[in-house]
Specification:
The chain has about 400 residues and is α+β, with helices and mostly antiparallel strands. It has four domains: about 100 residues, conserved putative lor/sdh protein from methanococcus maripaludis s2 fold, CATH 2.40.420; about 100 residues, Elongation Factor Tu (Ef-tu), domain 3 (Beta Barrel); about 70 residues, RNA polymerase II/Efflux pump adaptor protein, barrel-sandwich hybrid domain (OB fold (Dihydrolipoamide Acetyltransferase, E2P), Beta Barrel); about 80 residues, Helix Hairpins. Helix content is about 30%, strand content about 35%. It has four helices and 22 strands. The strands form four sheets. A six-stranded antiparallel β-barrel has the order 2-11-14-13-12-15. The chain has a four-stranded antiparallel sheet with strand order 3-10-8-5, with no helix packed on it. It has a four-stranded antiparallel sheet with strand order 7-6-4-9. α2 runs antiparallel to α3. The longest helix is centred in the first third of the chain and has 36 residues.
């Protein structure tokens, strides 16, 4: 029994020793540090860069010229000289209306002109005879006045006949309907053999033509943006698009960048009462005919000229209800709450307008580990920037401008 007791005692002592060693191993880290280690966060200095801001709008293309092709004379349609959807050029023949009735009317007008000219010649000869006879007192003064009146009447008849000839010549010319502008033509709306009416507002619509090069792009800006542009113009930070052809860039659906460059050429004279927006218009060259009226696209307009700015990634920016803030490393590595005013995104980074200094160390990763008045372990890491072929900007959140 004594041997078993001694064996049991030894086993108990061994277990106690193991338990003590385990306790020492678990508590050794805290004993060495004296306190729990502060959480690590990534900190960075804001990027300093000269930027140009762009404001983004959605709009659509419209033709510089859109013409409804209508007949200017009535008659039966003889022939059509284009293919639906073709590019036509100014002066190209499109339709021919039966010219024979108008050619006959022109011939009659020319005959009346010849008759009036003959009457004028006769009246002039009669006047000359009366003047010769008047010198010998062979005719009275009244006869001379009568001959003079006949000459003037004949001159008026000639002028009237000449005007009729010109009108009939125009009618014959109008039987050939030609393209008034260069552009893409729509489908024919009337077939050969149909009677078309012309010369009135309700004349038969034959087709339409829209010009393509150059082409307009229209968009609407809200009154807040309009007032901002006005104030920037007054302070000299950005010229008004009414006075200067400010540059614009455009992206078609499916394009991630903005490769198409144009310029502003019009700002409307009033804000729309129903929408509270004002219309702007840009113009683009379109030599390849890629842009077409009605196509929607995204446009970026210069919102502010170049200026030095501080930029941060959006991961460094926190939200406190309507307020935006960042954490700046202060004395003792304690993060300090710093409200900021934000601008747009440029090259993947957010512009910080107010609340930040170039020398500040901002927490860019690990915001969820920060506790009030608790120190952290900052780890420096530079902010990665993107290089864009064209400076681009998404609009800032409401209230952050």
């Amino acid at each position: 029994m004594s041997v078993r007791i001694r064996h049991t005692v030894k086993m108990g002592l061994a277990l106690l020793a193991l338990a003590a060693l385990s306790a020492c191993g678990q508590g050794g880290g805290q004993a060495q540090g004296g306190a729990p280690q502060a959480p690590q966060v990534t900190v960075s200095a804001p990027v300093q860069k000269v930027v140009r801001e762009w404001d983004e709008y959605t709009g659509r293309f419209v033709a510089v010229d859109r013409v409804e092709i209508r007949a200017r004379v009535s008659g039966y349609l003889n022939s059509i000289h284009f293919k639906d959807g073709d590019i036509v050029y100014k002066g190209d023949l499109l339709f021919v209306i039966d010219p024979r009735p108008y050619e006959a009317a022109l011939a009659a007008s020319r005959a009346r002109l010849q008759q009036a000219q003959s009457q004028l010649q006769l009246a002039n000869r009669e006047l000359q005879r009366a003047e010769n006879l008047r010198r010998t007192q062979a005719v009275s003064e009244a006869v001379l006045d009568e001959r003079l009146q006949q000459v003037r009447a004949a001159q008026g008849a000639v002028l009237e006949a000449e005007a009729a000839v010109r009108a009939d010549e125009l009618n014959v010319e109008f039987t050939q309907v030609k393209a008034p502008v260069t552009g893409r033509i729509s489908q024919r709306l009337v077939s050969v053999g149909n009677l078309v009416s012309g010369g009135q507002a309700s004349s038969t619509l034959l087709t339409t033509i829209v010009s393509l090069d150059p082409i307009h792009f229209v968009f609407n800006a809200d009154q807040q943006a309009y007032l901002r542009y006005v104030r920037l113009s007054q302070t000299g930070d950005r010229a008004s698009s009414r006075e200067v052809a400010n540059p614009v860039v455009l992206a078609l659906p499916g394009e991630t960048d903005f490769p198409h460059v144009g310029r502003m050429d019009f700002v409307d004279n009033e804000i729309d009462f129903s929408t509270g927006t004002i219309r702007g218009r840009a113009v683009f060259n379109n030599p390849n005919m890629v842009f077409t009226p009605g196509l929607f696209a995204r446009l970026r307009l210069v919102g502010r000229e170049e200026y030095p700015a501080l930029l941060l990634p959006d991961s460094a920016i926190g939200t406190d209800q309507a307020r935006r803030f960042v954490y700046v490393i202060g004395e003792g590595n304690v993060p300090q709450y710093r409200p900021v005013t934000l601008g747009p995104i440029i090259d993947g980074l957010r512009v910080v307008r107010e609340g930040l200094q170039p020398t500040d160390k901002v927490v860019t990763a690990g915001l969820q580990r920060i506790r009030p008045n608790a120190p952290v372990t900052p780890v420096d890491a530079p902010i990665q920037t993107q290089t864009a072929a064209v400076e681009t900007t998404a609009p800032a959140a409401e209230g952050s401008r």
